[in-house]
Amino acid sequence: MTSVGSSILTSLGAGSGIDTASLVSSLVSATREPKQSAITGRQTLNNARISALASAIGSLDTFADALSQVLGGAGYTGTPASTDTSIAGLTLLSGGTPTGLPAQLTVQSLATARVVASSATSGATGSSEIGTGSLTITTASGDTTFTIDSTNNSYSGLASAINNADIGVTASVVTDASGTRLVFKGETGAANDFSIAVAADDGGSVLAGLGWSGTDSTTMTSTSTPQNAKITMDGVDYEYASNSIDNAIPYLRIDLVKAAPGTTVTLSMSQPTATMADLLGEFVDAYNTLLKALNTATATGTDSSNSGVLNGVAGVRDMKRQLSAITSTPLASSGTYRTLADIGITTNRDGTLSLDSTRLNDALAADPEGVTNMLNPKVPSASSPGLSSLMDTVRDNIEKDDGPLKLAQKRYQGLADDLTDQLAKLDDQMADYEEQLTKIYSTMETRLSALKATQSYLEQQVKVWTNSNNN
Fold first, then answer.
1. 128, 262: one domain
2. Is-contact 185 172, C-beta < 8 A?
């Protein structure tokens, strides 16, 4: 785009014979380039630091998450098993390892829900009108009233209104060879019964017949009553409102499939297929990959050109310091083996780890259960966190909002914004400078043109005077 100054020079630059447009451009470039290079150089370094910090945090997150996932997997915790999955199935829940197994389970009855169906209306469809008025559903939580008018006067309209209300009762429209009906279903459990009251504008409408308060009628029939699931676990009777039971056995979900009084199902956990020696070898390898990347990023060179991009960043130094403490931090509150150092994992001078396989194997041979519980306790606690919980704690401390690492990220992001503003400001300054120079040289051009005109006049006069004197 042609600047204001360039336009002025184009219109006035023919008088002196000097290429003032090129001169102004050269002067502006000579002023801009060192300033712009300084800013862009700082931008390059700052962007590299932002990227490297994000990479370091991402690598730490990946490491901690992978460790939690591995230790929580079946390879290190075992697999839940039921001797008859047609009666009860099992699902492992996160957070710990099930205790109290094996257990003997008998399913006396399943949890059921109240189901009420209207009589079928021959020839009707989901969009057929049911009549206007109101319908109130009463549950243990209270009353919910639905107004039926021209906007929802249909089987589907009323069912949608009920389902969208999320009150613990659902409605569905069922059409078969006999016609269309509404089916209402509550949640399982004895405490989750419901009733329906209607106030219809037309006593002969379908809506008028949808009321139900515990007694069947010609238009509404209950096909299922609400009751709790009843089970016997190791000789003790229990009741639950749902057929999915999460709190009978810690960290284990029991899904009841069918009632089978008199049949005993054994619930158990298979033994882990992976060894703690395998885990620690993988842990050391992954940890060293992370530390080597941090060491490269923080390396000290002879000058800034060959130093690591994160050299001198306090947040990264703090990150390395906290990671280095892992080998000496207690993973268990008691026992012969309480830290990683106790079982043969030591820290090298560069911060990476070494695994003494002989020492580890000796520890596993001497107290396999103690080592396993130290690394992967059934129920982690503050005093016995285990390896996964410890890594999560270290990660959370490193990445806390007011910690050195996050503050460094904020500082570099703020600098990035500031450098972008500096470049924009430099553009404005150089545009003003170019216009200023253009005005100066335009004025000079005008004066030179006037001087040349005066010179031409004087030369003509001298020539006239000379000719007159010669004559």
1. no
2. yes
